[in-house]
Specification:
238 residues; alpha+beta; 7-stranded antiparallel beta sheet; 5-stranded antiparallel beta sheet; 5 helices; 39% strand; elongated
Length: 238
């Protein structure tokens, strides 16, 4: 009985040591992967990386991670006038093949999501004076921009100060987001001194998307534009 008890205790202790070593190793690998993703320019700031699955060390031996999850907030994407912040970025990457020292990594497939707030989206638009006919009649500052908010399924609505302007559909093609021209409401048409007017459509391209993913969808929601991402054969590091 004593021999059996000692053997059992030994197995339990050894298992605990192995589990502890595995968890330490995965923590080190997650931090190194986050550093390498930042250095590779795939994200504008160091992300949080979580390597799922247990045990981790067997995945290291095969040099392929089954499930890697990346998250970050307030990422910067785009260039020049199209630069904007992405909030609450989340990505799930499957089949991540890595080199021994994390100097390179490719991904079989990945999906993700993020949010552009309406305040940040408004910052991508030209000043109201360039969009709304006779906007000066509304006695607003020269740099005033349209305020945007949720306009119902597939739409955003715009206001200029306290005055409602109209709504417009939002869609994407490739990595370019397009806001169709806002059709002026009856009040906006009256204030601007025009009738049956539609503002010019607005589009912007989201280059340098995080983790090498591509834009797959854009959906207006109460808190902003919800972006969907996907990709196959992604170069994540290196």
């Amino acid at each position: 009985m004593r021999g059996w008890l000692k053997a059992t205790i030994g197995v339990v202790v050894l298992s605990g040591v192995l589990v502890g070593a595995d968890r330490i190793a995965v923590g080190v690998a997650e931090d190194e992967a986050a550093d390498q993703i930042l250095k590779s320019g795939r994200m504008s700031r160091k992300p949080d990386v979580s390597i799922e699955g247990f045990p981790f060390l067997t995945q290291v031996v095969s040099k392929k991670l089954d499930d890697v999850r990346i998250s970050s907030d307030a990422l910067t994407v785009g260039e020049g006038k199209d630069k904007v912040s992405l909030h609450a970025f989340r990505a799930e990457l499957s089949g991540v093949e890595v080199s021994g020292n994390m100097s390179s990594a490719t991904v079989d497939s990945g999906t993700g999501s993020a949010l552009i707030t309406y305040a940040d989206l408004s910052g991508l638009l030209p000043p109201a004076s360039e969009l709304v006919p006779n906007a000066g009649r509304l006695s607003l500052g020269a740099g005033t921009r349209l305020s945007l908010s949720y306009g119902g399924p597939g739409k955003v609505k715009a206001s200029l100060g306290p005055f409602p302007i109209g709504d417009a559909a939002v869609h994407s093609k490739g990595d370019t987001v397009t806001v169709d021209g806002f059709k002026l409401s009856s009040m906006a048409s009256l204030l601007a001194g025009v009738s049956d007017q539609t503002l010019a459509l607005i589009s912007f391209t989201l280059s340098t998307l995080p983790a090498g993913l591509n834009l797959s969808s854009v959906t207006p929601q109460e808190d902003g534009l919800r972006l969907g991402f996907d990709g196959k054969g992604i170069k994540l590091i290196g």
